[in-house]
Write a structure and sequence with these properties.
Blueprint: H1 13-28, H2 38-45, H3 49-61, E1 65-68, E2 72-75, E3 80-83, E4 100-107, H4 111-117, E5 125-134, E6 137-146, H5 162-173, E7 180-189, H6 192-198, E8 205-215, E9 218-228, E10 232-235, E11 243-244, H7 248-252
Parallel strand pairs: 3-10
Antiparallel strand pairs: 1-2, 3-11, 4-5, 5-6, 6-9, 7-8, 8-9
Helix pairs in contact: 1-3, 2-3
């Protein structure tokens, strides 16, 4: 790679460097590729390492770079689009669903979930755990709460344990006529268990998408999905769920 010197510009030097680095990421590096060390990058662009660190930190905040323990700074994959304005509805686990089932247990849900599902305060529900991957990296985790009344045909033979049990619960859920969905999204902080799964520090920013699925005039299931804030963006439109975006606008953002 050649040497690129920064010209005199009115904006802060680190901000201009961020723009130059963004162009280099788009043209010279691929997803997951490890960047050269700070000393080499600072020499290439003719800046102090402190300026370089500011630019790298900004790119990390924008989701263009990731600092991975024991690996270094790598090029981040395209952000996952979190669709919140869709008019098309589908049960979790339907065709085209990119989530991967992990396991399912019967447990008493948090009080707020029990209130939304209108179950008894001590009534156990099926709790399905799923994960979402992008470019080999886990970017989201989900807890899906399903009352027994929503899957009346489920038997122990159909659902032994682990991922098989999760898939059986989701298959049984498909038998209900889905009447609609209601979604809400908010910025939150990663709890210890979510942070571990998402390879983030506890307290790191996350987007929490809560979805209520309606059938037979009631909330038949409730999903709480936690996304890494540095790997996703909100989308609005007619897409039927969470999609991976590879559009040119992503490169220019």
């Amino acid at each position: 790679m050649g040497t690129t010197q920064l010209e005199s510009v009115p904006e802060p030097k680190y901000w201009h460097l961020k723009t130059v680095l963004t162009e280099a990421l788009d043209s010279e590096f691929s997803v997951g590729e490890i960047l050269p060390n700070e000393r080499d990058l600072a020499a290439r662009f003719g800046v102090a390492r402190a300026t370089l660190r500011q630019a790298l930190e900004q790119l990390e905040l924008e989701g263009r770079l990731q600092r991975r323990r024991g690996v270094g700074t790598t090029v981040a994959p395209p952000r996952v689009g979190v669709a919140v304005g869709t008019e098309q509805h589908a049960w979790p686990g339907a065709a085209g669903d990119a989530w991967q089932p992990v396991d399912s247990v019967q447990a008493v849900p948090p009080a707020a979930v029990a209130a939304a599902l209108e179950t008894g305060i001590d009534e156990a529900v099926h709790t399905v755990r799923r994960t979402r991957m992008s470019h080999g990296q886990q970017v989201a985790t989900e807890l899906l709460y399903i009352p027994a009344a929503s899957v009346p045909g489920l038997t122990a033979i159909d659902a032994p344990s682990g991922a098989a049990r999760a898939r059986a619960v989701l298959r049984e859920l498909q038998h209900l006529p889905l009447e609609g969905e209601e979604r809400a999204v908010e910025l939150g902080s990663a709890r210890a268990d979510d942070a571990k799964e998402l390879d983030r520090l506890p307290g790191s920013p996350v987007l929490v998408l809560t979805t209520r699925f309606f059938a037979q005039g009631r909330t038949a299931a409730l999903s709480v999905a936690t996304y890494r804030a540095d790997t996703c963006r909100l989308t609005f439109g007619e897409s039927a769920g969470v999609e991976i975006h590879h559009d040119p606008e992503r490169q220019a953002s």
